[in-house]
Amino acid sequence: MLEQADVAQRIAADRDDVAEAPRFEHASLASDATIQLAKQHGTWFDMDIYNDDYILATGTSNGTEQQSLDKERMVGLKQRQTFQRAVKAGVKMIFGTDAGVYPHGQNARQFAKMVQWGMTPLQAIQAATSSASEALDRNDVGIVEAGRYGDLVAVKGDPLRDVKLLEHVDVVIKGGVPVKGAGALQ
User: Fold this and answer.
1) Is there a contact between 3 and 21 (Cβ–Cβ < 8 Å)?
2) Among 116, 142, 171, 183, which is least packed, fewest CB within 10 Å?
3) Same structural domain for residues 69 and 108?
């Protein structure tokens, strides 16, 4: 059975895949040449760099085997450095979480990691909104504008100053209807 790092390394080595694929998930161990090729061809990277924190924090108590934890320690830093190099090179990025590795509802923790490893808060937010819309060829979502389908969240404060505020959403409006917070249907 191939491990995620093995698959990422094998795919990253196949430059034709990067050049032809519109989106490239994980790209954990992408080389500088692969990063440049992604930039050149406008390939979107979808890199989940929060997972390490959760996996290493819960350790074997969450059922993760020690061998996997050892690998996570080794690959995790390399994955984040790859993310940092890709952001610096100008590779287009979308917000990816690999949700399921950790409990649902913790997805927003990815924003802070994206900022820690090289994005501005605005770039991280756009990776989850307008950039994701563009990467999926969806012109009906991702931007607040007349004629688009929009889900909105509200937080107490400015996430451009503190992106961690997105981890504590106070109001959710889905399809124009409040579903959490003030005005939500009970």
Assistant:
1) no
2) 183
3) yes
